[in-house]
């Protein structure tokens, strides 16, 4: 019912994948991924710094103070992971421009960890809406760097379903 690439007409220009060839330069989707991950790394660093420097209020109610202490601890954990993964993502970005498949894999792992902590922090209200936006930007960057047409740029061969 739904057409897939291995059942479609090989002559269909709408489904044709133009693989990267040596001499083509850096593919456009890799450039987009680099920009998205750069924005995400800046967002991670800024968000992590804000989470670490946020001053917690002092109240007289012991139950409310215990809640504030727990929230403050959670914010520092999420902020620490965001700063570490932000630095890691920023340091792995140049590997994308060089076509390093190993660094692309490491960048995906770092982005997955950052997205998990960022979304968990957002769900449990340790951060604001920017947490979800940072995770969305990283997900779009991951999508851009794993497009089928750039497999050859990162040293992989086209899969048999894509031929």
TrEMBL record:
Q: Which UniProt keywords apply?
A: Membrane, Transmembrane, Transmembrane helix
**Listed transmembrane segments:** 32-54, 74-94, 106-125, 131-149
Annotated protein name in UniProt: Uncharacterized protein
Tell me what organism the protein belongs to.
Answer: Corynebacterium kalidii
Phylogenetic lineage:
Bacteria, Bacillati, Actinomycetota, Actinomycetes, Mycobacteriales
């Amino acid at each position: 019912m739904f057409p897939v690439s291995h059942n479609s007409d090989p002559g269909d220009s709408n489904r044709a994948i133009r693989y990267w060839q040596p001499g083509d330069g850096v593919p456009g989707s890799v450039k987009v991924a680099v920009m998205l991950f750069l924005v995400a790394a800046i967002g991670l660093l800024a968000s992590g710094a804000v989470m670490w420097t946020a001053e917690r209020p002092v109240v007289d109610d012991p139950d409310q103070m215990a809640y504030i202490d727990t929230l403050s601890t959670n914010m520092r954990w999420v902020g620490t992971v965001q700063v570490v993964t932000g630095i890691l993502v920023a340091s792995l970005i140049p590997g994308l421009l060089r076509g390093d498949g190993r660094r692309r894999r490491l960048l995906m792992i770092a982005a997955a960890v950052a997205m998990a902590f960022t979304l968990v922090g957002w769900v449990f209200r340790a951060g604001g809406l920017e947490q979800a936006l940072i995770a969305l930007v990283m997900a779009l960057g991951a999508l851009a760097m794993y497009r089928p047409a750039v497999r050859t740029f990162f040293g992989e061969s086209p899969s048999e379903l894509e031929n």
